[in-house]
């Protein structure tokens, strides 16, 4: 489907060579064809969350439904193309399934409203409607906190569409069936002299039109049968004759912050309805799709795209790989840049949270910057120009990135997690940062067990090359990141008596220096309060920040109060996962006979405790200037962290120190990527805080 801004939308019917045009809205976002008779009807949805169907012949779009909270993106056709099944998100984000009759032009809700039902698909024979649903609740307890979460909640379920249709998983007899007698299939030998009649040519089978299916809506919610497979984290359900396919994600794939393999881990399963067997088909993929009869599957696994036979035990990731390296396209860069610029301008026009563009004349602004396109000489210039364009909106969370950028060769410099100064014609190790050597991000190479080196020693040589201060000390460690290096160390500035050690330098030492900074701040607070008050620094409200928060909080739960330092916070999610813990109430004291009292819950505010939030300004690095331009005068970190400040201060549990750095009153966000050679983001929604502090932050 064409994504141009005109109302014309084009598609090619499967049996037609010439393009066809339908009159539809100018808000088309995506589309999906029918599983059968795909040249007759199409489904698509638009940016206003409306679901439509359109016939190829009459070319008249018909609105099916409109989502109140999200797109309706999982609609599918019945085999006879007379029904549409889809799910619609409710206020809590749960999916509620509906069946839409094209003949009656009416949608009927078939979910109870209690569970989340999504991804409905018809089986090709029209007997069942398969769907995914969150109906299994097996709590998993955390290691650090007695809080429970739920992971393997999903299952595959089947609805019998006819009231008298038996469940596909009804109980079967376990008695063995008698073997059928084998019939002699050999034809009688032709008598001598008889001539064989020429075999008549069988008529080629023509694709029959699907028979109308019957759906009994009365009592349909009670005709749900679970597929006998383990619950899990499931998605991507698709049905073919006699079987269905789905993706299962292992629970460990949802663990963030690890340093291991981050490749795709989804497992594609196929379930045989007749044999009632569930088997893995492909392991370690991102996504998949099927041909019409389900005999072949196209998959994506990282950079690999391949096509294999859909046969369990034979299909493997890496097989059937499509060679895409030779694909080339000839483009006129200036024409492409012009299109990219106009698409960026159009996306802001169509998706910005305020249709009035906050009072700006967007057409005039677009024309002003478009006049500079003749002076653009490379992709970086274009990104700069688009950044200046969207900066006119003075709205946070607007970025520009991607595109055809030159690939620069970089030489890794090995880092030792140490400070050096010059003394006696050599480099002296002034300080060695302790680090935490169980993580590569915070490993301090010179603190590995068994190394004979300490602060005050001298670096004499690196891999046999004398390390003199006529060059920067890091010049001797070029291309040594992650490699074993031989260092000569001495307690004096001389090669005489030097000894050798082997170390593995790290790619950077930001982690060890950051830990040292936190430790110094914690020590200041400890000395100033007699050890009563804890200190933590939260770098962001994303995965690194979540790890830092829980790590520092759980290590200091025995303190009477806490200072939460969020200076230079780089943003992330709305931090309710922080405020929820800081606001927990003390419910009881457990008084064992032989030990001291224990507060319950352990993560709770004691009556004497007062969490103190130290608020400060956030900085923007030079490398982030393009992003900062889109923020206007605002800081992403302060914007994201404002709910944190208000959340802990509103119940008078915390005092706020610092000053306001957020010029806007809320957040806005949009992300779009069209075409694939570029991406930009901007606001399609705005965020207004519902919590207000009773006191103004102290300066």
Summarize the structure.
This protein has 3 domains: 8-168 and 211-288, 7 Propeller (Methylamine Dehydrogenase, Chain H), CATH 2.130.10; 329-410 and 511-699, 2-enoyl-CoA Hydratase, Chain A, domain 1 (Alpha-Beta Complex); 418-506, Pdz3 Domain (Roll), CATH 2.30.42.10.
Describe this structure in words.
- Strands 25, 26, 27, 28, 29 and 30 form a six-stranded antiparallel sheet that branches.
- The protein folds into three domains: 8-168 and 211-288, Methylamine Dehydrogenase, Chain H (7 Propeller); 329-410 and 511-699, 2-enoyl-CoA Hydratase, Chain A, domain 1 (Alpha-Beta Complex), CATH 3.90.226.10; 418-506, Roll (Pdz3 Domain).
- It starts with 7 loop residues before the first strand and ends in an 11-residue tail after the last strand.
- Strand 21 (287-290) and strand 22 (296-301) form a beta hairpin.
- It is built from eight helices and 38 strands.
- With 699 residues, it is α+β, with helices and mostly antiparallel strands.
């Amino acid at each position: 489907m064409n994504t141009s801004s005109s109302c014309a939308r084009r598609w090619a019917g499967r049996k037609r060579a010439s393009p066809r045009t339908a009159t539809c809205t100018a808000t088309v976002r995506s589309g999906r064809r029918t599983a059968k008779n795909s040249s007759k009807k199409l489904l698509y949805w638009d940016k206003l969350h409306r679901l439509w169907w359109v016939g190829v012949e009459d070319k008249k779009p018909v609105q099916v439904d409109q989502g109140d909270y999200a797109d309706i993106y999982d609609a599918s056709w019945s085999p006879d193309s007379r029904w549409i099944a889809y799910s619609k998100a409710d206020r809590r984000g749960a999916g509620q399934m509906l069946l839409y009759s094209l003949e009656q032009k009416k949608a009927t809700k078939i979910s109870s409203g209690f569970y989340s039902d999504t991804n409905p698909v018809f089986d090709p024979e029209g007997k069942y409607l398969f769907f995914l649903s969150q109906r299994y609740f097996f709590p998993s307890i955390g290691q650090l906190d007695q809080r429970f979460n739920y992971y393997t909640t999903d299952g595959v379920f089947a609805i019998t569409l006819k009231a008298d249709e038996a469940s596909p998983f009804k109980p079967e007899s376990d008695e063995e069936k008698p073997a059928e007698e084998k019939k002699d299939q050999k034809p009688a030998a032709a008598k001598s002299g008889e001539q064989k009649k020429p075999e008549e040519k069988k008529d080629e089978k023509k694709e029959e039109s699907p028979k109308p299916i019957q759906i009994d809506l009365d009592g349909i919610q009670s005709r749900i049968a679970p597929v006998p497979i383990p619950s899990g984290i499931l998605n991507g359900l698709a049905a073919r004759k006699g079987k269905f396919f789905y993706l299962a994600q292992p629970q460990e794939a949802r663990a963030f912050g690890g340093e291991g393999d981050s490749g795709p881990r989804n497992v594609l399963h196929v379930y045989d309805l007749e044999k009632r067997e569930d088997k893995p088909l492909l392991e370690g993929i991102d996504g998949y799709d099927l041909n019409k009869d389900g005999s072949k599957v196209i998959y994506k696994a990282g950079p690999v795209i391949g096509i294999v036979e859909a046969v369990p035990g034979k299909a493997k990731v890496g097989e059937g790989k499509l060679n895409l390296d030779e694909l080339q396209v000839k483009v006129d860069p200036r024409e492409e840049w012009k299109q990219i610029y106009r698409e960026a301008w159009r996306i802001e026009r169509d998706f910005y949270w305020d249709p009035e563009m906050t009072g700006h004349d967007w057409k005039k602004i677009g024309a002003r910057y478009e006049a500079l396109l003749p002076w653009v000489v490379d992709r970086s210039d274009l990104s700069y120009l688009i950044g200046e364009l969207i900066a006119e909106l003075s709205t946070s969370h607007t970025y520009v990135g991607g595109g055809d950028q030159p690939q620069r060769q970089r030489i890794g410099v090995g880092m030792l997690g140490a400070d050096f100064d010059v003394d006696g014609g050599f480099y002296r190790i002034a300080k060695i940062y302790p680090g935490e050597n169980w993580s590569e991000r915070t490993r301090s190479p010179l603190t590995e067990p068994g190394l004979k080196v300490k602060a005050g020693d001298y670096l004499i040589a690196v891999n046999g090359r004398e390390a003199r201060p006529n060059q920067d000390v890091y010049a001797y460690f070029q291309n040594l990141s992650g490699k074993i290096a031989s260092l000569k160390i001495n307690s004096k500035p001389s090669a005489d008596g030097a000894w050798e050690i082997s170390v593995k330098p790290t790619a950077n030492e930001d982690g060890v220096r950051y830990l040292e900074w936190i430790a110094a701040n914690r020590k200041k607070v400890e000395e100033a309060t007699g050890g009563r008050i804890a200190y933590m620094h939260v770098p962001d409200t994303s995965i690194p920040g979540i790890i830092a928060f829980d790590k520092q909080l759980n290590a200091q739960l025995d303190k009477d109060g806490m200072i939460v330092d969020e200076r230079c916070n780089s943003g992330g999610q709305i931090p309710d996962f922080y405020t929820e813990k800081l606001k927990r109430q003390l419910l009881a004291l457990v008084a064992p006979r032989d030990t001291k009292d224990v507060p319950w819950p352990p993560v709770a505010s004691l009556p004497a405790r007062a969490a103190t939030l130290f608020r400060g300004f956030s900085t923007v690095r030079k490398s982030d200037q393009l992003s900062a331009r889109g923020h206007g005068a605002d800081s992403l970190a302060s914007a994201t962290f404002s709910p944190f400040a208000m959340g802990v201060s509103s119940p008078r549990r915390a005092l706020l120190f610092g000053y306001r750095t957020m010029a806007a009153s809320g957040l806005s966000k949009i992300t779009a990527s069209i075409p694939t050679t570029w991406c930009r983001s901007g606001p399609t929604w705005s965020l207004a805080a519902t919590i207000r502090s009773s006191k103004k932050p102290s300066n």
